[in-house]
Specification:
The protein is built from 24 helices and 16 strands. It is α/β, with parallel strands linked by helices and about 550 residues long.
Length: about 550
């Protein structure tokens, strides 16, 4: 009965029994096959792109089976704690459509299996460990850091497996009476798990992604409760996933080597072991070498990178799904506008090796996504982006010119092959600002109009520009407009097509494309733009002529 005495001495405040906990957190009433999954981040201040991937998979697995996806905040590392980090995380999860159904939600908690912050679960851990002491599954360890370094040095010298196990687990040999005396003497201690495993024995388990795995059994008497009264990851995982009734643990593959320990803990406590799916790490190619996407080296490792540039959220999720399942892209090709939840995601089709993060591919999905939207939708998303950026002048401009923005962003959109030039909302304004009179004037004032082709003389340029004012045809469709451009070209001795020009270059000053370029530079300020006819139509004849006058004035000021 001295284990009982020891248990009461260490945890006098823990008056619940394991049975009380079982009753308090009963099995969930879900339909057969429904999975309870979770995302269990440490609040480090931001949502990592790799964590977004993890959360997306966990949410998908729950949603597909009509289960529950909850969030547990693993905030036991008080040294790494950052003020407000949990809230920021949840905000970002909301923006990325991976908000949990239950758990710690940033400003409050929801669900019957809480508290969902590990720092608030001490009574549960204590109750479990108290029972473990009674069952001889846990004991206090009084070894100091110095003792442990000596142990390590001896083990290294003797070339034996390092760690606190078997004959090296000195405190495991103390009697409960010894423990009680030491505790009463005020000796500091941690709690350890008494493992009966042997690392020469192999255990087998199934991982839903990696398949059958065989690894050495755990024999380490790991620390389960630190001297600050907080649990270690391994113990908290077992306790929390049991009492939160998780059925499927999806987490990073760095935990795979700990599974033997986790299974041993579940078995020792007579808890059902959940199913495991260890997700591949997202890597990056750095000078030809694969390495983990790193928050220090790679800006794209934080999801805020994508938000700040205005990447459409769906595109990021689409990309992540494409690295999750190799058959995804084929499905997506035929279902570009379908919600991602319609994809039959399958853990079994997950790539086993780490995926490579590819920004070009992200851009590809983003271009494709924006191309599926109609102009109204693009303007709405663009406006939301401007608002999120706190860019009030842009917000005002969009809000007071909505139909103009819609016309502009409709250029070459409703066609069988829509333009796919935008992949982030950050790119839009700069490319269309020439539509606005104040912006175009500023371009002239600041000398930002691209230079005209120097092969064309200033005299010809002036004549051609004046002709644009007089002879361009508006409101009659693209073809008649282009006929008018051709007529201007012909009258200034420019060939009507490349073939004609090449067959006799000495006869011509250039070709019709050169004339169109002059017009484009005069109204856009640059030789690159979407369909010129549509631009002219939106600007209208009066504004086009005003710009041509401004360009003529600019030319008049330049010497030849
Ligand atoms: N807090 C752990 C981590 O961030 C959670 C791992 C898990 O999902 O169990 O790696």
């Amino acid at each position: 009965m001295s284990t009982e005495k020891l248990a009461n001495l260490i945890f006098p405040e823990a008056t619940d029994s394991l049975l009380d906990l079982e009753r308090k957190y009963p099995a969930r009433l879900l339909k057969e096959g429904a999975d309870v999954t979770r995302f269990a981040p440490s609040p480090t201040g931001f949502l990592h792109t790799g964590s977004l991937f993890t959360a997306m998979i966990a949410k998908t697995c729950a949603a597909q089976t009509e289960g529950v996806f909850f969030l547990r905040l693993e905030d036991t590392d008080t040294k790494r704690e950052i003020e407000g980090a949990g809230e920021t995380l949840l905000k970002e999860m909301k923006l990325f459509d991976v908000f949990p159904d239950e758990g710690y939600l940033g400003t409050h908690e929801a669900g019957a299996y809480g508290p969902y912050k590990q720092s608030e679960r001490a009574p549960i851990y204590k109750t479990v460990i108290k029972q473990m002491i009674k069952d001889n599954l846990a004991y206090p360890c009084f070894c100091t850091n110095h003792d442990l370094s000596l142990l390590r040095a001896t083990q290294e010298g003797n070339k034996v497996v390092p760690g606190y196990y078997g004959p090296y687990a000195t405190c495991s040999f103390l009697s409960s009476e010894d423990d009680i005396t030491k505790i009463e003497n005020g000796e500091p201690f941690v709690m350890r798990f008494r493992s009966h495993g042997n690392h020469e024995t192999k255990i087998k388990f199934n991982d839903l992604i990696k398949g059958d795995i065989e690894i050495a059994e755990n024999d380490q008497h790991i620390v389960i409760l630190k001297s600050d009264g907080l649990p270690t990851y391994h113990f908290a995982h077992v306790c929390d996933d049991h009492f939160m009734r998780t059925t499927l643990v999806t987490r990073g593959e760095e935990w795979i080597s700990s599974v033997p320990l986790h299974i041993q803990l579940f078995d020792a406590l007579k808890f059902n072991t959940p199913r495991y799916a260890h997700l591949p790490v997202i890597n990056k190619l750095d000078n030809g070498n694969k390495r983990k996407l790193s928050k220090r080296k790679d800006p794209e490792a934080a999801v805020t990178y994508f938000l700040n540039l205005g990447y459409p959220v769906k595109a990021i999720l689409t990309y992540l799904m494409s690295i999750a399942n190799s058959n995804f892209e084929e499905w997506w090709t035929n279902n570009k506008t379908a919600p991602l939840s319609a994809f039959p995601f399958n853990l079994g089709k997950m790539s086993v090796d780490g995926a490579l993060f590819d920004l070009e591919k992200v851009n590809f999905f983003a271009r494709e996504y924006i191309a599926t939207l109609n102009a109204k939708e693009v303007v709405e998303e663009f406006l939301s982006f401007a608002k999120a950026q706190g860019n009030t002048s842009l917000v005002n401009r969009i809000e007071s010119n909505k139909s103009l923005f819609e016309m502009i962003l409709n250029i070459e959109r409703e066609t069988p092959k829509p333009r796919k030039d935008y992949y982030q909302y950050d790119m839009i304004y700069d490319s269309i600002k020439f539509f606005f009179v104040d912006e175009f004037n500023a371009m002239i004032e600041n000398g930002l109009i691209e230079e005209f082709n120097p092969q064309i003389s200033k005299e010809d340029l002036v004549l051609i520009l004046n002709d644009f004012k007089m002879r361009l045809v508006y409101k009659q469709g693209n073809e008649l407009w282009f006929d008018s451009v051709k007529q201007i070209a012909a009258s200034h001795n420019f060939a009507l097509n490349g073939k004609e020009f090449k067959s006799n270059p000495s006869l011509y000053k250039g070709m019709v494309a050169d004339i169109a370029e002059i017009l484009r530079i005069s109204v856009v300020g640059s030789r690159k733009s979407p369909n010129l006819y549509e631009i002219l139509t939106i600007l209208g004849q009066a504004e086009v002529n005003r710009r041509i006058d401004a360009i003529l004035a600019m030319i008049a000021l330049t010497d030849n």
